[in-house]
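Usage example:
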Amino acid sequence: MAGITLSNVRKTYAGGVAAVKGVSIDIEDGEFIVLVGPSGCGKSTLLRMVAGLEAITEGEISIGDRVVNKIEPADRDIAMVFQNYALYPHMTVYNNLAYGLKNRGIKKEEIDRRVREAARILEIADYLDRKPRALSGGQRQRVAMGRAIVREPKAFLFDEPLSNLDAKLRVQMRIEIKKLQKALGTTSLYVTHDQLEAMTLADRLVVLNGGQVEQIGTPIDVYENPASTFVASFIGSPAMNLMEIERDNAQWHLSRGDGLSLKSELEERSAILGLRPEDLHIVEDETQLEDPLVLSLIVSAVEPVGAESYVHATLGEQGQEVIVRAPGKQHFEVGSVLKVAAKREKLHFFSSETGKALTSTGKLQPA
Amino acid sequence: MKRVQFADPLMPYMLLLPQLLIVGIFFIWPAAEAVRSSFYLEDPFGFGSTFVGFDNFTDALTSSDYASTARFTLVFTALTTFFSLSIALLLAVKADSVIRGASTYRTLLMWVYAIAPPVAGLIGVMLFDQHIGPLKEFAGLLGWDMQIGVNYFDTAFCMIVIAVWKQVPINFIFFLSGLQSVPKSIQEAAAIDCRSGARRFWTVTFPLLAPTGFFLLIINITYALFETFGIIDLVLKGEPGNNPITLVYKVFLDGFRGNDLGGSSAQSVILMLLVFVLTIVQFRLIERRVHYN
Amino acid sequence: MKREHITDHLILILGAVFMIAPVIVAFMTSTHDAVSVYRNGLQMTWGGHFSDTYSAVLTEAGGFTKEVTGFTMLKNSMILGLGFAIGKIIISMLAAYAIVYFRFPLASFCFWVIFATLLLPLEVRILPSYEIVQGLGMMNSYSGLIVPLIASATGTFYFRQFFKSVPDELVEAARIDGAGPIKFFIDILVPLSKTMIAAIFIIMFVYGWNQYLWPTLITTDETFFTLVRGMRQILQVWIGAQIPETNQAMALAVLAMLPPVIVVIVFQSWFVKGLVESEK
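Running the assembly step on the lines above writes:
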């Protein structure tokens, strides 16, 4: 087992398109790292470079103490689980698991032992003689996992392995992958575009955007202290409410229209205010509050999802959209006025030029 | 192409070598030779050749012989294509709509695909024969004194019938698979929107078959131009006389019987251009077909 | 949804008769003797001379051809059909593998060279092809019969299309599993292509068996005649005869169509699938 180090890794395609623009990540031994981002952010390319399926244009990748830039995929001592599983359709499950081991010249008895052990762990022992097409989606997924396990590699690489499963199975497999990874203690690099999957699986998240790292951190850290508006809107569902604000002396208001007033010592002339839907609590009597921010909203639609409801509402004449997470029992009338407030520590400020978080500098205190 | 490819300095060339070698020797070289000799006048006794520029082309294109052959080829191609496509479409639509015996009909209507054109030609010649042919006899009952090999029109008729007979199966196969790939949901939507079955066919099914139809059109034109050689050769019994022949047959005749190397080559080059155009059109259509799917 | 109409069946039956009747006539005529055919024309009924006619055309030289028996022609047809199909599959599979799975500088050039063969059907280069084969001393030989036919791009295109449809991840998984190009080809790609190979084999066997123009040009020695090539000879002898052996001519026609017809009917579903899919 081993850690993985990426230092200033770049990928530029023949046409001049840069898919990965200088990414550095230090992955510790046994860690579960999830690369998350929208499609086209370079996460899969990055994973495939670690696997050796894409050439590295610039930078260095090492697995353990060995720089692997020029090493064949088969010799990198990694295993990969593909999105469509990439099982060999003409081979039985047993042979699918055994093929890579045979190619490495491992003894028959050892192959048999490993295959049966993996099959036992993944509960696919009954299907070893079947061909992949005779298996259900979930079973195929297990076989794909099994193919990775039998190699006893230094690292697992997962390329959106759950995206072909239905929602229920996805949740179930998600937990199993996490348990398995913890049990085996193998360093894992996992790619997904699903932020929920990323949050639940990761020891640490790497949020990618446009070929660059936006933020690296534990799921909670990333959620609570998003480093940029991109991370803020990508992680968390419903997404963080973002609104452009401007300063008039010490008084802040919406850039377009009114409906918001806020005191803050921010020095910028303008900024972006971020509010998580669950951080907005509904208030009856605003005069009693010490909260620095109170919004007066008009309810435009309600999405009840059971335990809670997402209240879509508008702020000001320009119709700034705001989503509020409210208890499921509460009833809302479309068109009615809704007052919400947020605590000081729940306000996020981002630069209106770069989108980077301003609070992280430490000196900014909302009034 | 694949995202991940093997990089081996030698292996791809080794893999391609057999094909490239054969292509080079038996395709590119003779084609280049045809182009070259189309600009030369070969001495019939083999004493060298003289460069004559485009003379062979102008000779070919201006000769009345060539013009009448081209005219017949056009008519032959048009009629063969039209009849084999429409008969096949009719049969495919019916075969798609029946339930009982569907697979039997399918087999009965497609197996003739496997028969070689000259074999079809031989059987056809016998069926139309002066003395023993039942079709000639049948035409006689209708007051048509059919004289294959003697009468220009009758010979052409015979060629077209055989050519259509031989080509219906492949069109049938493609039309039927085209019909079967029309999604059931579309047929059901059409059934709700439109009561008349015929109208439904022409407004919904037929347009959906259009890509298959265009594709087959090219296939059929190519067939009528080139692959009917065996049929024509058999119907003419190797003695063209004053009978209709196609352009390809004329290339063969002028080259092998007439020993007119330059003229035959010039005609070959003209045909190459024709194939070139047809191939381009075909590839355009295939691209479009992919979009449909 | 479907409603059956009697007219649908009528049209289909008419169509089936149109397709089958000529072959029935050919077969029935072949079971009569020459004299009765000469007197009474082609036959629609069983004549009882089946074994006479067929043993004569299969085993006796002379008649339509001077030196060869029908059996020899059948053998030659078989060699052409099988040799063509097998040769074509091997050559085009290798070429398509190189084009789809390898990165090399001349890839697109090679592809276009092969592609160009589509623009050059035999019919437009008859004479020079003949001369080149003659110059290479390949006249009247099986290699001269088969090899020049093998190289056209069709097979390569079929396999190229098919290989492109194989998921990319398979080769990636195979590389992680330590399979090189040869191992991947033998262990994964060939087994995956089994049905495709079968379908192409059927199409190519029929295509090779049915070749006419090329064998006509390069086989002048009767011992290399295929059945299909022999059709013209048969017709010419038939025309010149006092009492033409129509029954035997028809018997040879039946023999010439029998193997490809059987293959197409027996392997119908593969054949149709191969034909329709590969044209996409």
